[in-house]
Amino acid sequence: MGNLIDIQNQIEKLQKQAADIKTREFDKTVKDILAKMRAFGITLRDLQSAVGKPRQRLGKAKVMPGKKTAAKKAVRKPAAKSGVKVAAKYRGPKGETWSGRGSMPRWLADLVAQGKSRESFAIKG
């Protein structure tokens, strides 16, 4: 077994190799991810909701000596159109429907991946 300096040199060499591999494979990995996102209709919003909603940052309240402060909670207001039903814009071969909002449903993503166009499933008029 080598001494500490030899081991640290080996660690440094391996870390450089790992960084080189990561650099070489980064662009390819990003392209693969983007291709899959397009094929399945995945958006950045879908990814954020899968990981968890980003935390809302609140500044710390400054407390003046001798003054009482009430802690304020961050209250999110619902979106103006949340809960509003919209008409279906796409219909699948088995009668499935999609309004065009949110992530693309699996049935449509599979058909698009097979080479069919999304517009061919659009509901006319």
Structure in words:
With 125 residues, the chain is mostly helical. It is built from 3 helices and 2 strands. It is elongated, with a radius of gyration of 26 Å. It is 42% helix and 3% strand. It starts with a helix and ends in a 12-residue tail after the last helix.
Q: H/E order of the elements?
A: HHEEH
Largest sheet, strands/sense/barrel: 2 strands, antiparallel
Strands across the major sheet, in which order? Answer: 1-2
Distance between the termini: 77 Å
Q: What is the gyration radius calculated from CA atoms?
A: 26 Å
| Number of strand elements | 2
Mean pLDDT: 82
Task: Name the assembly state.
Answer: single chain
Count of helix runs:
3
Strand content: under 5%
How would the global form be characterised? elongated
Fraction in helix = 40-55%
Structural class: mainly alpha
Unreliably modeled segments = none
Fold blueprint:
Elements: H1 4-40, H2 44-51, E1 90-91, E2 97-98, H3 106-113
Antiparallel strand pairs: 1-2
Label this structure with key terms.
mainly alpha, 2 strands, two-stranded antiparallel ribbon, 125 residues, 3 helices
Gist?
By secondary structure, the protein is mainly alpha-helical. The chain has helices at about 5-40, 45-50, 105-115; strands at about 90, 95-100.
